[in-house]
Here is the input.
Amino acid sequence: MKKKIRILFSDIGGVLLTNGWGHESRMAAAKKFDINYEEMDILHDFIFNVWEMGKISLDDYLDTVIFKQKRNFTKEAFKRFMYAQSVQLPYTLPWMIEWKNRHKNIKVISINNEPRELNELRINKFNLHDFFDAFVSSCEVGMRKPDPGIFLLALGIAQAKPEECIYFDDRIMLVEAARKVGIHAFHHNSFEDTKKILESLE
Here is the structure.
């Protein structure tokens, strides 16, 4: 490779998979289960970060956001709907696994914001161990992007200098957060753009 890159960091939701529990999924849930979306969203914003950092369980989150009042559906039915929202995005993951297999000297590590239950589901459902060598997930480390601490922790786990790493994220703010600690960070706009970036480094 032209640049001496030792580590590829990547987000998961918005790059490889759909977001685990984004606003579109919450709006779909509100419609399906006949929930007041505005009220649900206020409660979600109030507590989601706490869940995403692993401080509370999915049941705790749902008790606050959905089941503060009696519902005509079960918690298990709602969980099944939540889990079904995770879908693999076209092209990116299979191609990046192939790319990794061509560059066995490069380690691949996630830096992702994800609640524990969704994180575990998505890793197992989509065989993400086939791509990632390690996961720096907000629910496990108690920090979430854009906290610079999570990027510094990832660098420490990788035992790599920032200039030896690249990072992909679908959110500009988080790309900029990675750049502030010196990582070569790129905005993931599409599979084709990310493919070109990686191929340009070969």
